[in-house]
Amino acid sequence: MKLTGKEKSELIFEGFITAGLIYLLYLAVLIISDQLVEISPNLKDSIWIFKTSVTIGNVKILSYKMIFIVILIITGGIAVFWRLKRRYKQMQLRHVISELHYIAEGHYDHRIPFELSGDMSKVVNSIHVLVDSTVAAMDEERKIEQSKDELITNVSHDIRTPLTSIIGYLGLIEDKQYQNEEELLKYTHTAYIKAKQMKILVEDLFEYTKVRQHTTPLNLSEFDMVKLLDQLAADFELDAEKKGMTIEVLQGTPSIPMEADAEKIVRVFNNLISNALKYGVGGKKITIEAQKIGKEVIISVNNDGPEIPEESLNQLFDRFYRVEESRSQETGGTGLGLAIAQSIVTLHGGYIYARSDTHLTSFVLHLPLKQQSNEDRARN
Ligand code: ATP
Ligand code: MG
After folding, report:
1. Of 279, 288, 345, best ligand 1 pocket probe by most atoms within 8 Å of the beta carbon
2. N or C: which end of the chain has fewer CB within 10 A?
């Protein structure tokens, strides 16, 4: 710690004052003891005994005066040192307090810049840890706030678009601006489709906020993953055929018994397979592969459609993210599917990622075969 000029002179002044006071104290003690010796012959005798004890024969080993003076100088020195050290500690504390005030004024990246020793250094370290965790908590809070604002912006945008169409078509009907019944039906049909789109968005949002909370209970059951995938592939066969694609579960392990919330897991695969159908334009084949490795099952949903650009791969799982940004128009999705899928997989203690090259796009899921009970999950 660097002392200011004023503090240095304060210390020097303090040193002189203390030394002066000690000198006066010694002088007083000397005068009193001198008088005591004069009036008390016993004391004179004991001093004589002391003098002879530091004398061997007639040889003086040490002058008793010398011993006395040395002791006085040492105790005096210790007293001055102790006073100065105390004063220096007070100055340190003053510096620490003013640094703390500076941090508290909003300079949260500032840290107490000097090295301290002993308990003071422990206090300063604890303060630093406290400031760090407060700053981290504030950052987290800010991010949550920002992400809430983004959510509201995205939702209002996605609701406003179909809502504008609905109001537009209903307005035409209200003003009787249709030529015939056929046109009237066309308007009501479009308004109906748009209203359904809005319903899907609201339902997806509801699902998304539900699965985002890590305390959401899972409705656990035991099932065979291979059977479940076969069933899903069969359900999508017709849709795939319409798009000129095939869907196949690659035969590896004959059965993989596991425990999970089957309904939520089905939702994950429904999105992955319908994505492969929607975005695998120009592709011919969707394949699903499952294998059991150790205590987990690894499932990949692959399609041979267009490559997802490298920079988009990490963002796919962000809510409302769509690679081609033609949001909700052509394909009608909300951009929440993969965000929901990721939250569901995380709820099960697993993880999901995507990889893509010119030949193959794969979404790979790692899921534990066994689940913790809902109570254990809520506790962790
Ligand atoms: P939703 O699933 O909510 O109906 P969505 O399908 O647009 O809407 P996600 O499932 O989250 O939303 O997918 C996000 C984006 O990732 C898609 O818009 C698409 O651009 C891209 N994507 C997802 N799967 C694939 C795939 N198999 N091939 C290419 N792009 C994909
Ligand atoms: Mg989707």
Report:
1. 279
2. C
The upper half-sphere exposure of residue 358, i.e. CA atoms within 13 Å in the direction of its Cβ, equals 0
Residue with tokens 């030949």, as numbered in its chain: 359
Taking the CA of 354 as reference, the closest ligand is: 1
The beta strands (E) that lie in the chain are given as 55-56, 59-60, 221-224, 246-249, 257-260, 285-293, 296-303, 351-356, 361-368
In short, whether 333's Cβ falls inside 6 Å of ligand 1 is: yes
Nearest CA to ligand 1 atom 5: 335
Map tokens 């988009």 to a residue.
Answer: 312
User: Which pTM does this prediction carry?
Assistant: 0.70
User: For ligand 1, is residue 275 a contact (CB within 6 Å)?
Assistant: yes
| Three-point CA angle 226, 229, 235, nearest 5° | 145
pLDDT tens-digit profile of 343-355? Answer: 999 999 999 999 9
Confidence of residue 56 (pLDDT cuts 50, 70, 90): low
237-275 pLDDT per residue, tens: 999 999 999 999 998 888 999 999 999 999 999 999 999
Contact 299, 290 (CB under 8 A): yes
Residue 255 CA to chain centroid, in angstroms? Answer: 39
